[in-house]
Amino acid sequence: MTTVAVVDDQALVRSGFAVLLHSEPDIEIVGEASNGQQAWDLCRRTTPDVVLMDVRMPIMDGIEATQRIVTDPLCASTKVLILTTFDEDELVVAALRAGASGFLLKDTRPELLLDAITVIAAGEALLSPTVTRRMIERFAALPDTTPRESAANGLTEREREVLLAVAQGLSNNEIAAALHMGYGTVKTHVSHLLTKLDSRDRAQLVMYAYESGLAVPRT
Q: What is the pTM of this model?
């Protein structure tokens, strides 16, 4: 059973997500919140596996709420999935920096949202292919990026290849096929990358790849 918290300042949106999630027998909604402060309080009480997090909310926005949740020892197992629209690119980048495990568009098909919750709960980040390219371009252009090339210098050539594949939004299965590696070997490399680069999850690895200059947006 995957436990989920739904966070959005619009009651109608929350209700829509709740109806969808209640239809899935392997998902349990542990609560709803209309702002970031409520979301943080809810997560401290219920420790959901996944939080569906809006970005623009009163009192405390989704960015600050995400940062507080992922750094709170009481919420150590909770993952945050940002739900966004196209006009919130910079805010979503900030949310990923704050520790979110991925993002989807709010108009994502229901079955894809359910799949995303499963992926996030399993510990893998999910970067929607629909918006990854836009996000990467925006992220790479931000003036406040901080290169961390010293850590990248400690990567093996194979680890760099895997990191670049992760930065392209590829899943472990897709990386295995592209690099002619076993699935288990890819998982091992990703695990080593998370440790070496002090990253929380795959979303953080994507950011690292562009911050360090190892990955460059395609033109």
A: 0.73
